[in-house]
Amino acid sequence: MRVSLKLAWRYLWGRKLRTALTTLAVVLGVAVLFGMNSILPTFLATFQKSLLTSSGKVDLSVSSESGDTFTSAVLATVGSVAGIDVASPSLHRNAALPANKFDVGQVSVAGIDPASAMKLHDYTVVQGRFLQSRDANVVVIPKDLATQLKVKIGSDLTLPSSVGTTRFRVVGLLNAPNVPGVQEIYVPLSAAQTLFADGSNISLIEASYRAGVDRAQIESVVQRKLGYAYRLGALDSGSTIYSSLQVAQYAMSVFGIFALVMGGFIILNTFRTVVSERRHDIGMLRAIGASRGVILGMFLVESVIQGVLGTALGMMLGGGFAIWLLKAMAPLYESLLRVSIGGIIFTPDNFISAAALGVGITIASALLPALSASRITPMEALRPAVGEGAQEANGRGAAIGVAIVLLSIAALLSGNARVVGLGAFTFLVGMVFLAPAAIAPVTDWVAGVFTPLFRGEGTLARSNVTRNPGRAAATVSAIMISLAIVLATLGLVVSIFAAFLGYLDKSLGADFVVIPQSLILSGGNVGARPKLLNDMRHTPGVGVVTSLRVGVAKRDGHALNVVGIDPNTYLHVATFEWTQGGSDAAVAQLAQGRYAVVNGVFAGQNQLKPGDALKLETPQGIKTYRISGVGNDYLNAKLATVYISHENLAKDFNQTVDLLFLGNAVPGADKVRVQASLGKIFAQYPAFKLYSTSEWRTSQTTIFDSTIGLFYGLVIALALPSLLALINTLAISVLARTREIGMLRAVGATQKQIRRMVMAESLILASIGTIFGVVAGIWLGYGLTTVTSTFAYPMAYAFPTASIVLVAITGMLFGVLAAVIPSRQATKMDVVAALHYE
Amino acid sequence: MSIVEVRELTKIYGTGETAVTALDHVSLSVEAGEFVAVMGPSGCGKSTLLNLIGGLDTPTSGAVLIDGTDISGMKDDDLTMLRRRRIGFVFQFFNLIPVLDATENAALPLTLDGKGGEASARALDWLGKVGLADRARNRPDQLSGGQQQRVAMARALVTDPALVLADEPTGNLDSHSAEEISQLLRQASDEWGRAIVMVTHDPKVAMHAQRIVLMRDGAIVDDVKVGGKGGQTAIRAAMEKAGLL
Ligand SMILES: Nc1ncnc2c1ncn2[C@@H]1O[C@H](COP(=O)(O)OP(=O)(O)O)[C@@H](O)[C@H]1O
Ligand SMILES: [Mg+2]
Predict the structure, then answer these.
(1) Contacts of A348 (CB under 8 A, 6+ apart)
(2) In the 3-class helix/strand/coil scheme, how is A545-582 assigned residue by residue?
(3) Looking at the structure, do residues A464 and A553 belong to the same domain, yes or no?
(4) What residues flank ion ligand 2 with Cβ within 5 A?
(5) Do A71 and A140 reside in the same domain of the chain?
(6) Are A377 and B84 a contacting pair at CB < 8 A?
(7) A43 — pLDDT class (breaks 50, 70, 90)
(8) Which range has the top average pLDDT, A128-132, A160-164, A454-458, A497-501?
(9) Considering the domain boundaries, does residue A414 fall inside one?
(10) Is residue A55 part of a domain?
(11) Are residues A499 and A600 in the same domain?
């Protein structure tokens, strides 16, 4: 061990540049891992916060079935149920603002009890203060609204009231998420009750549960105590928020795994190079009597030192990068998503796993190649070779590679989502095996493109690449993996984006939509009586109008979204994206008894197909429906949803109010005028908002665009270290050829020619890596999309043309950038010293 | 007793059509303190023979006895010990560890054997004997090719082995350095009593040996003593026979 220690120390100290490069590889690997794992919880928390700011910590909401206000005595009933922690009453009404004074026509006034409401919601006050318990006529409004209304702290806001108008003084400004629709302003509950002359009535109770309670149990107790005149909304596994969070968590863990794979690969790659460079030294040591243990011990010591040092530095770098990235992105998020990114979260888990993996992977990365190096006979290792002789690619590796690639092609064709996803990863593995054998032919092809640009140096570069297929393959694999990951991620995001806009276009054939102010908690929305639908149908210029209703069923203890549709009119204004051989006939069938259309998420989660029986727990007991088709629509794409007829929803779920309307204008009608006429009707229904479909599409696109910004941030975090890894690999390959470059200089190569040679080599490697990376990235993206489609958002794969161009340009740019430092290193070389090297 | 006893040694590389018979039933013995030069055209099996004697490779058939012990069936660990303690090696390339200085390189076999305490002093002693006392703290890249080979010589001798194996030790040197190394090898045999088996292409270097073994196509074709009456002519005739002249 003493000898190993001494040798290790001497190699580390005597080869400072190389030690620095190797340690840098560890630093980068750990930085990627640690950085990502620091960013992820923060992003997740931010994501959570942006979704939850509207619903807060609300576990249960109670409103009247009719949408009317109700007596505040109900509050005591709800509060008395065991397991309820906080219950908060509120009164919500829309109020028209005087048109001559303000640009904003309507606001939603929320009369709240500040003490209890603050326990349930995060009201982020950016200026002034929030409501206090003894406040009278004061109001807190969103910052944006204040800007629109041109009011500030201390200004008066006049609201129409039962006695004419009432003046409220603005005391605080909020940073509220930008939910399309009418903005909410907050006043004390008693002030709102006076304003709307509503006695002591309220319109909503929100409550939170104590930790660890049985949610389903509490809900049934509350429902029993209040009866079916009250509607309960609960945050359960079926809710939008919950499923969005699951999707986010899934995406985050995919990123985490990528970070680990990349970090590990960078480190392994570097040590492979280091060990192969020291091949002759190992052979000599073995010849003069060093045992295998001594050789392994040497690498063990080196890897422990570099592992510990690199891991510590990597954590600092990754942590710093994470903090910087979050800082840099914070303004973006604040302006786009209206959420402030919280402080970075460094969990103990993250420290432990980064430390263990950093040191562990480093040691394994050093010992694996060292073990095989210690196995070769000293004689083989000592075989004299003046330069780096041409080496044959390993035929067995290529055969394994071909086998794995064939397997992954078979997986692709299997049609099973899990298998396709796994196949995409295996393809990457197969390509890594295949790369050494593929290097020579692909290089000939690629170099054909570059040789005219680089003349003689191009030919040299080409032979430099092909004579050591192992090293070239390692470099190519590193580029391939990082670009494939970036491309796959972009592909997935683009697919999600395209899928949602596609659903939007396809499933909303309607000219206009009418949605409640908040689509987030379906349970808490105020519905409309059939009169509204009738009024709309009788508006001049309006053609077919259909309404959607919502009920909640239970299945295996989980809440399930049940949407009521009108089988006669639904298909005139909207569509389903059918899967599993469903057709529009499935909708017509809904009218013929207890039939249900289920969406892809639900069918996927429960392995259901058309014809299967579906038992639902309804307020009328357990009812058996038969599945008539599997199809997706835009509004419910993310949620496990069951569609039944209005008739059945009324019979089994006591649900007769309309929540959402979709309508068409009569062909040839002036849509603007039709919308204006409808607008008049909705002036009396402040709970609803009328959009033309194109307006709505725009508002949805904006939300998507800002979400995608979040993903680009993560992709940047992945791509940058891979550039540094390429520089590292190239630098090491120049080092390995020091003597030969000295020889070239000695026989008259100019510095410029050497630089061009290194540049050409870098470009050849980068091109091959990019080509491989694009192929693997498309594949991986397809796999990820398929998996995500099956287990999260249903969607089709969108071919990411723009991302491919972007990735290809990035790859070539990496090639140019990566060559800068190593080519300088090569040209600055002292010829005599270089010739003496080793 | 002979320090090296090679019996019917055969080495075949590869199998089937591509099989190469590098050594074909070679027998040879080397006495203690004897200086033997092995000559022959490139590819005739010289290095293969040397590597088998040094336990760096295992024969296809036949036996190698070092000091009376058959090493052809030995396990790797035992062979490693044998090389460390009983045999010294000098190669043409890759002789020194680039990150260690001259003393440390020379001391390496002792250090590997856990004799750290005396290693440095003994290495310095040997560096003095090969004429490099003033370069003891230089690293290989600060030494000329000839000086590097002298460090390798010091390393080969530091454990006081009975046998030193040198595969073209002067192959990479200028004629002046080659002469110095040749004299050192001669001294190792004459003065310090080591048996030396050296592969060389250079007749001038070979003339320092006491005996020249000539090989061709994996077999020994001649074995002549240097010096004495008519020695020169005998050697010339033998070289011609081996296809060297
Ligand atoms: N590892 C090996 N695999 C296959 N053939 C080998 C190997 N090593 C040596 N040879 C062959 O064995 C023969 C003798 O080689 P070698 O002993 O190195 O010759 P010399 O040292 O006399 O030039 C040559 O034909 C050489 O090509
Ligand atoms: Mg040879």
Answers:
(1) none
(2) EEEEEEEEEEECCEEEEEEEECCCCHHHHECCEEECCC
(3) no
(4) B 47
(5) yes
(6) no
(7) low
(8) A128-132
(9) no
(10) no
(11) no
- Could you tell me the domains of chain B? 33-58+74-241 (3.40.50.300)
B70 C-alpha to ligand 1 centroid (Å): 23
Instruction: Using the predicted structure, report yes or no on whether residue A181 has a pLDDT greater than 70.
Output: no
Place of tokens 């562990």: A360
Single-letter residue type at A528: A
Q: Domain count for chain A, please give it.
A: 4
Q: Do the Cβ atoms of A286 and B80 come within 8 Å? A: yes
A596 and A711: one domain?
A: no
Q: Which of A184, A214, A234 is the last residue of a domain?
A: A234
Confidence of residue A256 (pLDDT cuts 50, 70, 90): low
Which comes out higher in pLDDT, residue A143 or A747? A143
**Residue where a domain terminates, one of A665, A686, A707:** A686
Among candidates B80, B89, B111 on the partner chain, residue whose Cβ is nearest the Cβ of A3: B111
Mean pLDDT of A343-353: 79
Classify residue A418: in a domain, yes or no: no
Task: Give residue A95's domain range.
Answer: 60-234
For A15, name the nearest residue in chain B, comparing CA atoms only: B99
Q: Which of B207, B169, B208, B168 is nearest to B190 (CA)?
A: B208
Residue A226's alpha-carbon distances to A62, A68, A76, A560, in angstroms, are 9, 15, 11, 21
Whether A120 shows a pLDDT value over 70: the answer reads: yes
Order the strands of the B163-167 sheet from edge to edge: B87-90, B163-167, B195-199, B35-39, B211-216, B219-225
Least confident among A233-242, A572-581, A728-737: A233-242
Range with top average pLDDT, A240-249, A411-420, A503-512 = A411-420
pLDDT over threshold 90, residue B24: yes
DSSP A220: H
**Distance to chain A for B209, nearest Cα, Å:** 23
- Per-residue pLDDT, averaged over A472-492, amounts to 81
Asked if B57 has any chain A CB less than 8 Å from its own CB, the reply is yes
A703 and A724 assigned to the same domain: yes
Q: Is residue A40 part of a domain?
A: no
Q: Would you call B97 and A10 a contact, using CB atoms and an 8 Å cutoff?
A: yes
Contact call for B114 and A294, based on CB within 8 A: no
Tracing tokens 């006050």 back to the chain, one arrives at: A125
What pLDDT sits at residue A242? 47
Q: What is the pLDDT of residues A784-832, one digit of tens each?
A: 888 777 655 566 777 888 888 888 888 888 888 888 877 887 777 666 5
Give residues (CB < 6 A) around ligand 1: B 13-14, 20, 22, 40, 42-48
Give the pTM: 0.61
Statement to judge: residues A543 and A502 lie in one domain: no
**Count of all residues that appear for chain A in the document:** 838
* Pair (A21, A151) in one structural domain: no
Bridging pattern class, strands B61-66 and A164-174: unpaired
Tell me the CA distances in angstroms from A668 to A508, A679, A681, one per residue in order: 19, 19, 22
User: Minimal Cα–Cα distance from B232 to chain A, Å?
Assistant: 32
Using CA coordinates, name the residue in chain B closest to A294.
B112
* Claim to verify: residue A568 and residue A592 sit in the same structural domain: yes
Model pLDDT, residue A421? 76
ipTM metric = 0.85
